[in-house]
Amino acid sequence: MSTILYLAHTEADGTLGRNALEALTAAKALADGMGAELAAGIVGEDVQAAADSVAGCGAKFYGVSGPEFGQSRYASDVNACEALVKACGADVVVAPATARFSRSLPGVAVRVDGRVDTHCSAVSAKDGKPVAERWFYRQRMKGELSRDERPWIVTLSPGCYEQFGESGSAEVESVSAESASRTKVTGIKSPDVDEQTIRPDASMLFVTGAGWTKKQGDGQTHVKQAEGVILDFLTKTKSSLGSSKSLVDISGEGHEVISFLTHLHQVGQTGSTPRHPKGLATCCHGEEPHVVGWRFIKDRRAINTDASCGWAQGKADVLYVGDAFAIMEKVNELLNG
Ligand SMILES: Cc1cc2nc3c(=O)[nH]c(=O)nc-3n(C[C@H](O)[C@H](O)[C@H](O)COP(=O)(O)OP(=O)(O)OC[C@H]3O[C@@H](n4cnc5c(N)ncnc54)[C@H](O)[C@@H]3O)c2cc1C
């Protein structure tokens, strides 16, 4: 019988992250579909709480734990994951495409003489065999992959599955691995949570368009006011900030710009295709090259003064026809309440 290994690492607080919980949903469905055994391997300083939080999946649990495995470090992560793959004799490994695993699992595939496919969007059983899906060419074409080599490691991007949530009490078999702690992690430096406006885990995408910098009804631009309104909303809701291409391109044209926008915020055909349950576009026309980047946004809304803008042509679920400055100021006021 084949063995599907669900591989995860704990977060700093000892829990499993969203991406890891989603990958478990996929791994369990794959094991059920293939009639295979499900094993779960967790790496972390202490893995018991994480294992208990998903014990309802019915897997046999393995863990590599200890202070040296609490931190993301290529050498110790590769050792830990290699030991887990070997301990359960995994044929297929399903893991979240976190930064930590994206860095280390390709190395594990080499160590165990297997293969790896990263950033997949699905893995499922077809005629009893595992098949992975991946988007190509800036998310315009979806490919189906299968491989004969084993073990086959598949990492899954966030936002593709529901999170697994059946807890219980797990019996974890401890697996030993070399700590390989030649590299010491002395701390983590990351920008302040409010400086970091691209938030892949946010429940809402807030898109800004070039209209925020255009002359308004009074014949003037109000870019500083726009910045204040946008930042206020982002700080209050912790939404992820996206932009149209026109707005991020303005910086190259010497116009007054929204200071916290970069090309990394651009959504669309030549930008990103983020995954969020909801999206709100403001002062953005909703042209096709922009809206193709909204393919994974489930509930789409837009605010535009123009009732016949692109969003009104079947691209949004709801279009609010009005002045985004006034509407968003009111929304921020209500959020204060
Ligand atoms: C090959 C190619 C690739 C491209 N790739 C991308 C891409 O990846 N991403 C992308 O975004 N674009 C892309 N584009 C560009 C795209 O076609 C549009 O030009 C761009 O998205 C327009 O940006 P915008 O809607 O912000 O600006 P505009 O088209 O200038 O629209 C501004 C909107 O703001 C509204 N507005 C103004 N003031 C207010 C107010 N006070 N309240 C409410 N609404 C207001 C106006 O009514 C208007 O609809 C691409 C184009 C090409 C040719």
Tell me what you see in this structure.
- With 337 residues, the chain is α/β, with parallel strands linked by helices.
- It has two domains: 3-174, 3-Layer(aba) Sandwich (Rossmann fold), CATH 3.40.50; 204-336, 3-Layer(aba) Sandwich (Rossmann fold), CATH 3.40.50.1220.
- The protein is 26% helix and 24% strand.
- The chain is built from eight helices and 15 strands.
- The protein has helices at 18-34, 48-53, 74-88, 99-111, 223-237, 245-249, 288-291, 324-336; strands at residues 3-9, 37-44, 60-65, 92-96, 115-120, 122-126, 129-136, 141-145, 152-156, 172-174, 204-208, 240-243, 278-282, 299-304, 318-321.
- It has a seven-stranded parallel beta sheet, sandwiched between helices. A five-stranded parallel beta sheet has the order 12-11-13-14-15. Strands 6-7-8 form a three-stranded antiparallel beta sheet.
- The chain is elongated, with a radius of gyration of 23 Å.
- The termini are far apart.
- The model has no long low-confidence stretch (mean pLDDT 95).
- The structure holds flavin-adenine dinucleotide.
- Flavin-adenine dinucleotide binds next to helix 6, helix 7, strand 14 and helix 8.
